[in-house]
Amino acid sequence: MAKSSTNRFRKNVLKPLAGLVLIAFIGAQFVPLDRTNPPVDPALALDAPPAVMDVLRRACLDCHSHETRWPWYAYVAPASLLVAHDVEEGREHLNLSEWNAETPSWQAHHAEEMVEEIEDGEMPPWFYTPLHGEASLSEADVDVLRTWAASFAEDG
Ligand code: HEC
Question: Considering only CA atoms, which of 59, 14, 66 is closest in space to residue 45?
Fold first, then answer.
């Protein structure tokens, strides 16, 4: 009795459910996503000292520039949906490829904010660092950004 109801549950619920999940998974692969890197205009892109660019490239540019390195899982849903969303949002909030289009006071403010986000552990996002080991920043890395941000505040 108990056995046959288990079988019925498998046949009537679990199998159709697995089928639906599979169909949803396959269907999700066809959701159109923007995985493009718009051209970088060298006149607009942030051009900081190499040490600063190195830190930003390791930990920030994937989401905050037009120089995204799209990983393999950016091509497999549902991960792809999350990656594309992060890049879209990241570029919207802070696009280092368009840094020079902003005013000096905007730049000074955002350079400070970048350091603060890192100090608060908000950036890079918690799920990013396990996938990108080079993105976990040392105290020395953060110091490089602090010095850079401070130089803005003096200029502005
Ligand atoms: C995996 C993608 C990703 C990476 C990598 C990343 N960010 Fe972000 N960042 C976002 C997203 C998405 C937002 C907007 C939503 C939010 O605030 O969480 C954001 C928001 C921000 C903001 C707020 C901008 C504003 O004015 O609203 C700052 C500053 C920032 N990030 C700095 C950084 C810095 C500095 C790094 C590198 C140390 C970094 N981020 C790495 C995705 C990312």
Answer: 66
